[in-house]
C-alpha cells in the first residue's frame, strides 16, 4: 500500500489573544502510523484528540520558536503523558533555549509526580524517563523514518544580516517525504534563506498578518499602552511578520505549487472575508491558495 503524507492544521490562530474559532499554533504531519507535531500552542493535545489522533501517538515535536503562543501546551503534553504512565520516548526539537524550557517544565512536573495517586511508596513514571531534547541550528537535518526535516533561521527575531550572531533564533522547517514536500514558515518576515529552502516544495504553509487591523485591535483593547510600546509592536509587525502580498511573493519566488495561510491574527478573518486575503495573495502568486481553518488536511 502506498503511504500518503498529510499536513493537518490543528491550530490556525496567531498571537497571544485567544480566538473564538481558532486554536493556537499547532500542526500535524501524518504518514502511515507516524505522527509528528509542529509547534505546540495552547490546546494542542485537545486539538489532536478532536482531529482523531491519540496524542500519545506523537513521538516527535518540532518547535519553531519560543513565543508563548507556539509552546503553551508543552507542559500539558508532559504532564498528561506522565499521568497516563507513558513510557514511550518523546523527542522534542527546537532552537537553542528549548532545553532550558523543557528542564524547567520537568522540574514543575515534580510536584504532581510526588503526589501521584496519593499513596505512599508509589513509583510512577516521570517525564524525565522518556523526554529527549535536541536543540537545532540552522541547516541541521533530522530524519524520522523516511521523512527528512531541514531547518533554516528566519527573520522573526532579527534581520538576515545578524544571522549567526549570538541571540534568540526562530526556525522554519522543510519536510521532505517520499511522496510530497512541505515548508512551514513559522513566524517570519521576508527572508531569502527561507525562500531558498522552500524552492520547489509542493505546499508552503505560511503565516498571514494584517498589520493595520491588528494594530487597530491592539489600540482598542489596550488604550493605556505607552506610545513607545505601541510603536515597538508596529515595528515588530512590519519587520517580523508577512502580510498577504509578501506571503505570495515568497511562494512565487520559491516556485511552490500551493500556499496555505495560517497564524491568522483576527477573528474577522473568516469564511466571509477570506476571499479578500486570497485576492491579495493572488496579486503576487498564481498557484493554489487556501486560508486554512483548524482541522484542514492538505
What is the CATH C level class, in words? Alpha Beta
Distance between the termini: 20 Å
CATH 4th-level superfamily: Ribonuclease Z/Hydroxyacylglutathione hydrolase-like
Strand count, sense and barrel status of the largest sheet are:
7 strands, mixed
Helix content: 25-40%
| Tally of individual domains | 1
Any guess at the CATH architecture? 4-Layer Sandwich
Order of helices and strands: EEEHEHEHEEEEEHEHHHEHEE
The class by helix and strand makeup works out as: alpha/beta
Q: Compute the CA-based radius of gyration.
A: 19 Å
Question: Can you lay out the helices and strands and say which pair or pack?
Answer:
Blueprint: E1 5-11, E2 26-31, E3 34-40, H1 44-50, E4 60-62, H2 74-83, E5 90-94, H3 98-115, E6 131-135, E7 141-144, E8 147-153, E9 171-176, E10 181-184, H4 192-197, E11 203-207, H5 211-221, H6 227-240, H7 244-254, E12 258-262, H8 274-282, E13 288-291, E14 296-297
Parallel strand pairs: 3-4, 4-5, 5-6, 10-11, 11-12, 12-13
Antiparallel strand pairs: 1-2, 1-14, 2-3, 7-8, 8-9, 9-10
Please tell me about this protein's structure.
The chain is globular and about 65 Å long. It has a 7-stranded mixed beta sheet. A 7-stranded mixed beta sheet has the order 7-8-9-10-11-12-13. The protein has helices at 44-50, 74-83, 98-115, 192-197, 211-221, 227-240, 244-254, 274-282; strands at 5-11, 26-31, 34-40, 60-62, 90-94, 131-135, 141-144, 147-153, 171-176, 181-184, 203-207, 258-262, 288-291, 296-297. Helix 2 packs parallel to helix 3 (98-115), helix 5 (211-221) packs antiparallel against helix 6 (227-240) and helix 7 crosses helix 8. The longest helix has 18 residues, at 98-115. With 298 residues, the chain is of the alpha/beta class. The chain contains 8 helices and 14 strands. It has a single domain (5-297), classed as Ribonuclease Z/Hydroxyacylglutathione hydrolase-like (Metallo-beta-lactamase, Chain A). Helix 1 links the parallel strand 3 and strand 4 (60-62). The mean pLDDT is 96.
